[in-house]
Structures are given as structure tokens and as C-alpha cells.
């Protein structure tokens, strides 16, 4: 195979709970992960020039060894003695540093793409074992769909598809460091934890209201006070007819769940005018 194209889907967290800080500095999490319909395109091509050459349409994304796509390609090429030169073109659509696991998803798609292109024959489980070395969200991005993620995010349980709905994504033009958010998170008796178990039941019963009513993200307690625009966007969405709205991951992307097509179309219009520098998408759960 001379080239391959793989879609790298973005994710939102329908639920994100932090149970405790661990000795090793990581946090034990309990998250409901959900793929959404916007994706980056990853095209991998054999080229004459040896080495791994990354290209990306977004300037702020590094194209050197620090790119997770580079790391994914290198990991498999080293392990399976692949000596071909590769050019990997990342066509980004998923907002960068947004809480939507864009980099992790690109990384996952690269592992999947190289495995296929070179007929390596690794199973999904074997790819996930390699993915976790590159990032806690990478195994989930390989799996996709609706899943419960525990541990640091790598312990995955596949769930039935969440009840379908439309999703409005708004990424305001601010950068939020994931390190800042976890570094300033305090988990104590006052922490308001989302009810992940109720949401698991809701998903099992295909009960949209139970899911929509119970979305929650413990990281909002850090990100929102630092960036109040996030709660403003959440409120805007509710006023514009969202069934509920929440920050994804460590932010700053806000998502709104909608069942009414007219409402989401109108919300898209209104928020595009109010936040002209935001990245805004209408999509769905996939
Ligand atoms: P998460 O939801 O996992 O916290 P995120 O949406 O917050 O992810 P990313 O979009 O993955 O964040 O980007 C975080 C940083 O990672 C970027 O600022 C960028 O420098 C770096 N990075 C490395 N590889 C990539 C990639 N392929 N795409 C985007 N960013 C990348």
C-alpha cells in the first residue's frame, strides 16, 4: 500500500469525575467518553526521503518529534523494523488544546493506519497497549464510540451507544492548559461529583433525558472561575434551547445537547455572531 487515509474523530466527555490524586501525580478518573462527528484527516504516504515527515494545516501544531502522530509512527516503525520514508499530513478540524483529545485521536489514527498499511496484524487490544504509552486518552480514541474510562483513562469498558442527539460545539478563542486545570483541582468533601452511575443506567436504557439531565464535569470547578466565558457560553446554549450544556475535558470547549433541529440551527447562528472568533460546529454523537 502506497498511502492510507484515516479519520481521527474528536470526543466529548458526557461525564468526567475525578476520584482522587494518586501518589504518581496522576488522577484516578471515571469518565463517560463519547465520539462526535467532527474529525481530523490523517493521510500517510510512502516517500523516497527516509524518516517521518509531518505536515499540518494549523500553524500552532508542532510538526517535529513532539507531535503525537510522529511518536505513534516512530513507535510502530521501530518495533516492526519499517525503514520506509513516510509523509503524514494532518488536516486538523478538531480544535487544538480544546479538551476534545485532538492530538490523542490523531495519534490513535496513525497507529491504526500504519498497522493497516504495513499489514502488521496487531489487534485492537494490542494497539491500545501501545497507545497508552503515548497518552492516557489514546486507547479510548482507538476504541471510539461510547465508553466508560477509568484509572487514568486507560481502563475501558465499551458501552451501548448513547441516545442519539445533535451536538453544538463552541471552542472560545482561549487556550487552557490541561496541567493548570489538574494542578489546581482540589478533591475534598465539598466537591460536587457528577453521578456517573445514573448516567451509565441512562445509556443502558437508551434514556436520553437521564443522560442529558446528568452530564457533569468536575474540572469545571477549576476552569470556569479562571475563564468565565465558559459559563457564559453554557448559559447562552440553555437559553437557545439546548437540553443541557457542559465543558468537555479540561476545556475550554463547551458542548450543548439538542433534540430540536431548529433550535440548534438558530443557536449556531446566534453564537457565531456573538463569538466571531470561536470555532463552532454542529455535529452529532457517533
Ligand atoms: P485532551 O482532551 O486530551 O486534553 P486537548 O484537546 O486538550 O487534548 P490537543 O488538541 O491534543 O489538546 O493538543 C494539546 C497540545 O498537544 C497542543 O498544544 C500541541 O502542542 C500538542 N500536540 C501534539 N501533537 C498534536 C496533534 N497531532 N494535534 C494537536 N496538537 C498536538
TrEMBL record:
Enzyme Commission code: 2.7.1.148
Q: Report the residue ranges that make up the GHMP kinase C-terminal domain in this protein.
A: 199-276
**What is one process in the GO biological process aspect for this record?**
isopentenyl diphosphate biosynthetic process, methylerythritol 4-phosphate pathway
Q: What Gene3D superfamilies is this protein classified in?
A: 3.30.230.10, GHMP kinase, C-terminal domain
Which Pfam families does the entry mention? Answer: GHMP_kinases_C, GHMP_kinases_N
Instruction: Report the GO molecular function annotations.
Output: 4-(cytidine 5'-diphospho)-2-C-methyl-D-erythritol kinase activity; ATP binding
What residues make up the catalytic site?
11, 137
Q: Which intervals hold domain GHMP kinase N-terminal?
A: 67-145
Domain of life of the source: Bacteria
Major enzyme class: transferase
Q: Its annotated pathway?
A: Isoprenoid biosynthesis; isopentenyl diphosphate biosynthesis via DXP pathway; isopentenyl diphosphate from 1-deoxy-D-xylulose 5-phosphate: step 3/6
The record describes the protein's role as: Catalyzes the phosphorylation of the position 2 hydroxy group of 4-diphosphocytidyl-2C-methyl-D-erythritol.
- What is the recorded name of this protein? 4-diphosphocytidyl-2-C-methyl-D-erythritol kinase
Name the species this protein comes from. Answer: Eubacterium uniforme
Q: What is the lineage of its organism?
A: Bacteria, Bacillati, Bacillota, Clostridia, Eubacteriales
Amino acid at each position: 500500500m502506497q498511502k492510507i487515509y484515516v479519520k481521527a474523530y474528536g470526543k466529548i466527555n458526557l461525564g468526567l469525575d475525578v476520584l482522587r490524586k494518586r501518589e504518581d501525580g496522576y488522577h484516578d478518573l471515571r469518565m463517560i467518553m463519547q465520539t462526535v462527528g467532527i474529525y481530523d484527516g490523517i493521510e500517510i504516504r510512502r516517500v523516497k526521503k527516509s524518516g517521518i515527515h509531518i505536515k499540518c494545516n494549523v500553524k500552532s501544531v508542532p510538526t517535529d518529534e513532539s507531535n503525537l502522530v510522529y511518536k505513534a509512527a516512530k513507535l510502530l516503525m521501530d518495533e516492526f523494523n519499517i525503514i520506509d520514508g513516510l509523509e503524514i499530513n494532518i488536516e486538523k478540524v478538531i480544535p487544538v488544546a480544546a479538551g476534545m483529545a485532538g492530538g490523542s485521536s490523531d495519534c490513535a489514527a496513525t497507529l491504526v493506519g500504519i498497522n493497516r498499511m504495513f499489514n502488521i496484524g496487531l489487534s485492537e487490544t494490542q494497539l491500545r497497549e501501545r497507545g497508552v504509552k503515548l497518552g492516557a486518552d489514546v486507547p479510548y480514541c482507538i476504541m471510539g464510540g461510547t465508553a466508560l474510562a477509568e484509572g487514568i483513562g486507560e481502563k475501558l469498558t465499551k458501552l451501548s451507544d448513547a441516545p442519539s442527539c445533535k451536538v453544538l460545539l463552541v471552542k472560545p478563542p482561549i487556550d487552557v492548559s490541561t496541567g493548570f486545570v489538574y494542578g489546581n483541582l482540589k478533591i475534598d468533601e465539598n466537591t460536587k461529583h457528577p453521578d456517573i452511575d445514573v448516567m451509565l443506567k441512562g445509556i443502558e436504557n437508551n434514556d436520553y433525558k437521564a443522560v442529558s439531565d446528568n452530564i457533569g464535569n468536575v474540572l469545571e470547578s477549576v476552569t470556569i472561575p479562571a475563564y468565565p466565558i465558559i459559563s457564559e457560553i453554557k448559559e447562552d446554549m440553555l437559553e437557545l434551547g439546548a437540553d443541557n450544556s457542559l465543558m468537555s475535558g479540561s476545556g475550554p470547549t463547551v458542548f450543548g445537547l439538542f433534540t430540536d433541529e431548529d433550535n440548534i440551527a438558530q443557536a449556531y447562528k446566534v453564537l457565531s455572531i456573538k463569538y466571531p472568533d470561536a470555532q463552532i460546529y454542529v455535529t452529532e454523537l457517533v
